[in-house]
Amino acid sequence: MSQEANRWQIVIQAPISSIKTSKVHYLIPASEPTLNLCANIISSLSNRYPVPSILGYNGKGKFDAKEAHIAKLYSIERYLHGKQADDLVIVVDGHDVLAQLPAEVMIERYFEIIERHNTILADRFGLSVDQALKQGYRQSILFGADKACFPRLRDEPQCWAVPESFLPHRVYGKHTQDRSMRYADPKYLNSGTVIGPLGDLREVIEAALLLIENTWNATFKYRNSDQYYLGKLYARQELQRSKDLTGSSTTPGSSKKMPPDDAFGSDRTDFHIVVDHESAFTVTQCANVEWMRNIAFTTPDYKSIVKNDNPKKGHPFKPFSIQMPGNVVSALTRLYEVFNQELPATQWIKRIKLGTNTATGHIYPFYHGTCKKSNFITRYMDLWIYPYARELLQDAAQARGPLTERMVNERHWISARDSPKGGLGGVYTDDGDGFIPLEDFCSGFINQLIPAS
């Protein structure tokens, strides 16, 4: 196994002699403060993510996110330049994403998800994971997933060449295989949330920008969609993997369009891109609403009993249980201690409600409000952090040291950037202003988002 491949396998403990420390970067492309952006920031700080770096802030020209979505790619590329390749990076859209679970849960879960996807990829080629890694087949860049392809260009490979999900048959009900979007498995790349090693993500962003430069068409309707270009990279990767597997390209019809190789400016096809079919990283709201439930895990062993079926499934239903993972219990317990409440943490945890995809059984770390934006602040106020936001922010601003209680992937993980101690924390910007306290950055919105003491 290569050193690069081995580095990104999940390991929980390691010999003392090999202990190292890596950084976690939390990036939010956004040009100016808004109510939704400030809700995003408060949710992440409260859950102990690193102090966000706001990219493209007051951006001009190609960095102006108000003008085009692809501006965020230029801002991300600028930020990632020159930094450690094996740091971990989380990038979320500014105005429709919320963090629900603590950072340490997401860090551990990322490696668990990637381990699962690497096994599935190896199985696809009839290889062991070690054999697949030696041949260069690995996953590392995890994007959110949509149930429908957007932009809707059905003949383009990002809409037909991507793999099916590995979810159990009919996980969304007996109509899963019909043409209704709500019953479809999520399998299309959504660029609004992504997590992965910094070096790999840097290469993905650079490849997307090269594709933009080589194919730019000022009259094309979706020319400013970052998702359009990133989806093409994903599709090209999967087409090549299918060719490697079968010995021929897969073009199921004369109308299907193949991406011209010269458009990409490179022979490289594999960027280790994969999408989150399970909502184990991010749930995208569009066509998932019926399975997104805020549920309490009330049993002595931290389970939630789902007693009501989705009425649109239309098949016999039996109540079932969803287990809260132990690391979620542990992480929430540590944050709860901030409040100094008399109620035991075990009782408090059983009273709060957590957003859960009841089809896949995952409590999702991130919520992405695709399609409908009008309910975003309501979603924010439903988060467990909302009543305690002030205390959580104050404590987070003082916090230092590892983000996880134990080592993950043979290392400790620390914030790429901490805030100056005191106050409610804040953000860093890339326009030369440096650190801006939350009270200043969100001055017009903070009273709406943080309950009075």
UniProtKB/TrEMBL annotation:
Region (Disordered): 241-262
Annotated CDD domains: GT_LH
Composition-biased stretches (Low complexity): 246-257
The protein's name: Uncharacterized protein
Species per Swiss-Prot/TrEMBL record: Fusarium longipes
Lineage: Eukaryota, Fungi, Dikarya, Ascomycota, Pezizomycotina
